[in-house]
Specification:
17 helices, Rossmann fold, Beta Polymerase, domain 2, 6-stranded parallel β-sheet, two-stranded antiparallel sheet, alpha/beta
C-alpha cells in the first residue's frame, strides 16, 4: 500500500516498531512458498517484494502477515493493497527507486530507504540471487534517472513542502520562532529551508540530547531536552515534528495547558511523522492548527508540470532497464544446463589427466600445469559455441526444445542420475 491507496491512519498501523521489520523478514524466510523477500516500510508506503513459484499462496501469506502487523482484519486491509507480478513488479520497484512513485516526484530519500531495506534483507539472509540482482539494478536505474534527466532539480522534499506550508500560513517567516522536534534527516532538511527563509530562531528537541546539540550547532540553533518541550511551546510560532515515536508526543492536554501563557498567539503544528506525533484533537483547540503529512499533498504540486516532463524521460530509461532485466531472468533457465556442461567437461579433463599420469611422470610440475591448462582451454573453446547458442535462445518459446536437445546430446541427465 502507499499514499495513493491507503489513508495515513491505515499506513501508520503498518509502520514498523523496533525489530518488527526483522520479524516480518523472519516470517518470510520461514514460509516455504517464498524463496526470497524484502520488506520496505516508509512514511508513504509499505511493500513486500518476494520471489515465489506459487504467487496465489504467497500473496495470501503476505496479506496474513500484514494483517497481523497492523492488527486489522484482512478483509478491511485488502481494498487498500496493490499487487504487481513479473515484469510489472520489476518496473514498479525501478519506479519507486527512481522516485517516480513518490508523493513528491524526484525526492531523494526513498533511494536511501530502499538501500536500508535491502541491507536488512541481506543481513537476515532473505535476499538471494534474483533480488540481489534486482536491487543493484534498481540502484543503477535510479542513478541513470538522476544523471540523465532533470527530475531531481525540480523536485521538492516533504521537508521543503512543510516549509512552503508554513510560508502560506504566515506569508513571511522573518521573525518567526521554530521548534523542531526530532533531529533526523527530515528535521535537518526542514532547518535548512527555514533558515533560507529568514526565521528568527530555531530550537531543536530530541530524545538523545547529544544529537539535538549536534543539529542545533549546525544551524546556530538552541538545543533543548524533551522535558523542556512543553515550555518551548510557549515561545514557538511553528512546530515541525518528525520523530520515530510510536505514540503521540504532543497531546491535547499538554498543548491546552500552555495556551493561556501564549495570549492567543496562533500556534501551528506541521506533523511529518508516521505514525503521527501530534494527537489529532489538538487541532480542536482555539488558535491551534495541525497539519499532517497528507495535508502536504497540495503543496507538492509546485513544479509538477516540469517534473512530469522529466518523468517521461525517466520512464523511458526504466522500460529500457526492465527489458534488460527480463532478458537476464530468462537466462536463469539456461544456467543449470551450462553448469552441467562445464561440470561434465571438467570431469572428463580430470579423468584423462589421471589416466595419462604414468606417461607424464617425467614432466616437471610446471610442465604438467601447462598441459592441464591447455586441456581446459581446448574444452572451453569447444563448449563456447553451444553455450552462446543456448544464451541466445533464452527469450525464445522454443528454449525448452534446445535445452532438452543439449542435455540429450551430452547425456547430462544420465550423468547426473548416475551420480
Amino acid at each position: 500500500m502507499n499514499h495513493e491507496t491507503a489513508p495515513l491512519e491505515l499506513r501508520e498501523c503498518l509502520a514498523p516498531e523496533a525489530d518488527s521489520d526483522r520479524h516480518i523478514l523472519a516470517g518470510m524466510r520461514n514460509l516455504e512458498v517464498i524463496r526470497e523477500g524484502i520488506f520496505l516500510s516508509t512514511c508513504n508506503r509499505v511493500e513486500a517484494l518476494f520471489t515465489t513459484e506459487n504467487p496465489g499462496q504467497a500473496k495470501t501469506s503476505i496479506l496474513s502477515a500484514f494483517s497481523q502487523l497492523a492488527n486489522i482484519p484482512e478483509k478491511e486491509l485488502s481494498p487498500h493493497l496493490y499487487t504487481y507480478e513479473d515484469t510489472a513488479a520489476v518496473e514498479h520497484i525501478f519506479s519507486v527507486a527512481s522516485s517516480l512513485d513518490s508523493m513528491v516526484v524526484g525526492e531523494p530519500q526513498i533511494l536511501g530507504q530502499i538501500k536500508n531495506a535491502y541491507a536488512m534483507a541481506v543481513k537476515e539472509k532473505t535476499s538471494g540471487v534474483i533480488l540481489n540482482r534486482l536491487m543493484h539494478k534498481a540502484f543503477h536505474v535510479a542513478k541513470r534517472v538522476r544523471t540523465e534527466t532533470g527530475i531531481c532539480s525540480s523536485a521538492v522534499s516533504i521537508s521543503y513542502a512543510a516549509v512552503e506550508l508554513a510560508k502560506k500560513i504566515f506569508h513571511r517567516l522573518e521573525g518567526k520562532k521554530v521548534l523542531l522536534i526530532g533531529a533526523g534527516e527530515m528535521a535537518e532538511l526542514a532547518a535548512k529551508h527555514l533558515i533560507s527563509n529568514g526565521v528568527a530562531s530555531i530550537s531543536v528537541a530530541n530524545r538523545t540530547f547529544e544529537r539535538a546539540i549536534q543539529v542545533a550547532k549546525a544551524f546556530e540553533g538552541l538545543p533543548v531536552s524533551f522535558d523542556e518541550m512543553p515550555q518551548q511551546l510557549n515561545h514557538a510560532d511553528i512546530v515541525i515534528t518528525s520523530t520515530a515515536s510510536q505514540d503521540f508526543i504532543i497531546t491535547h492536554s499538554t498543548v491546552k495547558k500552555q495556551l493561556k501563557k501564549r495570549r492567543n498567539r496562533p500556534l501551528f503544528f506541521i506533523d511529518i511523522a508516521v505514525p503521527r506525533d501530534v494527537e489529532p484533537k489538538v487541532n480542536n483547540l482555539n488558535n491551534v492548527y495541525v497539519y499532517d503529512i497528507d495535508d502536504l499533498k497540495g503543496i507538492i504540486e509546485v513544479n509538477m508540470h516540469q517534473r512530469q516532463q522529466e518523468a517521461v524521460k525517466a520512464e523511458r530509461i526504466i522500460k529500457d532497464e526492465v527489458i534488460k532485466f527480463e532478458k537476464w531472468i530468462k537466462t536463469l533457465k539456461v544456467v543449470p544446463t551450462i553448469i552441467s556442461l562445464r561440470n561434465k567437461a571438467e570431469t572428463i579433463v580430470q579423468a584423462e589427466i589421471k589416466k595419462s599420469s604414468p606417461a607424464l611422470s617425467d614432466l616437471t610440475p610446471a610442465q604438467r600445469q601447462v598441459i592441464e591448462t591447455m586441456s581446459r582451454s581446448i574444452v572451453q573453446k569447444v563448449l563456447s559455441d553451444p553455450i552462446l547458442f543456448l544464451k541466445s535462445k533464452s527469450d525464445r518459446a522454443t528454449l525448452d526444445v534446445y535445452l532438452d536437445m543439449t542435455r540429450r546430446l551430452f547425456t547430462l541427465d544420465l550423468d547426473e542420475n548416475h551420480e
